[in-house]
Amino acid sequence: MADTAIKREDIQARVTRIGKADILVGIPSYNNARSIGHVVRAVQAGLAKYFPDRKTVLVNSDGGSTDGTMDVVHDTTIDDFRSILLSHRVESFSKMTIPYHGIPGKGSAFRTIFEIAQALDVKACAVVDSDLRSITPEWIELLVKPVMEDGYDYVSPLYHRHKYDGTITNSIVYPLTRALYGRNVRQPIGGDFGFSGKLAGFYLSKDVWETDVARYGIDIWMTTTAIANDFRVCQAFLGAKIHDAKDPGADLSAMLYQVVGATFGLMEEYPRTWKSVTRTQPVPVFGFTYEVGLEPVSVNIQRMIDKFTLGARELVPVWENVLSEETLGFLKELADAPQDNFHMPDAVWVDIIYSFALAAHRNLLNKEHLLKSLTPLYIGRTASFVIEAWESSGPEVEEKIENLCGVYEKLKPSFSDRWK
Is it the case that residue 4 has pLDDT exceeding 80? Predict the structure, then answer.
């Protein structure tokens, strides 16, 4: 096993000084000096305001930042607790900044957080992204309280996002995970989670830390592992998710490969679980749901269509190994369609995803080549969705996503029968 941060003498000494703690909040980071100070203040304020009688720890697990991120974490504090409506300073708060070891990526950062949580025997944990601009102290209460007071093991985030933000979640990960495992977890790769110390220890026991899970796949791995192993799961409404959003038509091939690859890999681990699921169950939601203002997301529809068209010209020999003749014929026609008529129906898209999952299962092609050939198809589907939802409100877009979930669920039995 690769060396980890928890084995370092200086880290062990700091853990020993703290002894035990009730709550740990982790912030993974890499070159986030510009935004992480706000996140640290929100975390400290949330712990002080909502858990004043608990022993709490903030852990920044950093991936080798060169912009002073760790210095910002170290220097950021709340000097005047009256500013957050507290009459006294809370002394049972500790802060650690640690460079993590292992494969570069969010999963390796989380591993360090899990290890320190286990060493401190914490009851509840949370992790939050380091580029959040919308985080408030209330997020900490909402992510931690269901674990501390209601016995839940996993708290998935639920937030309003711009209709063009989170397209990998909306078109693939959410509807596929929901259809497979039968739990309506809306943001399975949301990035901000609460979980029990028991679940953190379970995560550490799994042999995934030298795989792609250590890069981008950690969020969907955490969610699916919790659901598939019957841990108690809930959701917490956090308001708006405002962070460093990306153009959904930008080059996301690496992230798509690793997130979808992790999702498909989990299907290999839990086939008995997902094959037995025949209906979707609701998942409890904590927090007061309200409408929020959202920042616009820039999209370039023509650029997305051009990327799809280029892929359709170059990747047909790959897609012939994966897709049916009917679907392949449709895609060839779509590549010649003008923007006004560019539309990829839900049933075609779901057939594509299930076909790629089967191809990965059967090892028909090199996994990386296979999944990266999905990128132009995903971009084409995203372009179609943007065109279709151009005049739609947020609730109307959510209804479209619900309809897509219904198609995934309708086509699941046929997919399951073909999975040998």
Answer: no
Amino acid sitting at position 106: K
Q: How far apart are CA 151 and CA 153, in angstroms?
A: 7
Contacts of 249 (CB under 8 A, 6+ apart): 299, 300, 301, 303, 304, 307, 379, 382, 383
Residue 57 DSSP class:
E
- What is the rounded radius of gyration, in angstroms, for the C-alpha atoms of the chain? 22
Instruction: Count other Cβ atoms within 10 Å, centred on residue 248.
Output: 25
Q: CB of 196 within 8 A of CB of 123? A: yes
CB 331 within 8 A of CB 342: no
The listed range with the strongest mean pLDDT (1-10, 151-160, 252-261) is 151-160
Confidence of residue 196 (pLDDT cuts 50, 70, 90): very high
> Residue 366: what pLDDT?
93
Provide the residue type at 165 as one letter: D
Which of 330, 232, 298, 224 is closest to 268 using CA atoms? 224
C-alpha span between 294 and 257 (Å, rounded) = 28
pTM: predicted TM-score of the whole model, two decimal places: 0.92
> Which residues belong to CATH 3.90.550.10 in the chain?
5-286
Nearest residue to 128 via CA among 106, 95, 161: 106
CATH for the stretch 5-286: 3.90.550.10
Helical (H) or strand (E) element with 357? helix 346-361
The pLDDT-based confidence of 68 (bands split at 50, 70, 90) is: very high
- Asked if residue 249 lies in contact with residue 299, where contact means CB atoms within 8 angstroms, the answer is yes
Distance spanning both ends of the chain, measured CA to CA: 33
Distances, alpha carbon 56 to alpha carbons 51, 126, 134, 143, 341, in Å: 8, 11, 22, 14, 56
Q: Where do we find the tokens 């129906």?
A: 345
